[in-house]
Amino acid sequence: MIAPALEEMAGTLAGRLTVAKMNIDENPQTPKKYGVRGIPTLMLFKDGQVAATKIGALPKNKLLEWVEIGSLKPERGASL
Asked: Are strands 49-55 and 41-46 parallel, antiparallel or unpaired?
């Protein structure tokens, strides 16, 4: 499951990363707006714009790498 890793990252990177989940059945227009074709779809927003998108579950270390690529690098000493 990806949820525990995302929750841990949200705590570790608090103040620099916000993790939000959306039920696409309750919000059918949002997936259309962003071209979501698979679940889970992870989207990294920066300054209100989509900076990166990843489809499918990833292990925690790969999630962190993906976030780092999006310029939200954790402070020195932060670990997951």
From this structure: antiparallel
On whether the CB atoms of residues 70 and 51 are closer than 8 A, the answer is yes
pLDDT tens sequence across 11-51: 998 988 899 999 999 999 999 999 999 999 999 998 889 98
CB 55 within 8 A of CB 38: yes
Higher pLDDT, 38 or 79: 38
pTM beyond 0.70: yes
Rg (CA), the chain: 13
Angle at which helix 3-12 crosses helix 60-69, to 10 degrees, equals 50
Tell me the C-alpha distance between 58 and 60, whole Å: 6
| Contact present, 2 and 58 (Cβ < 8 Å) | yes
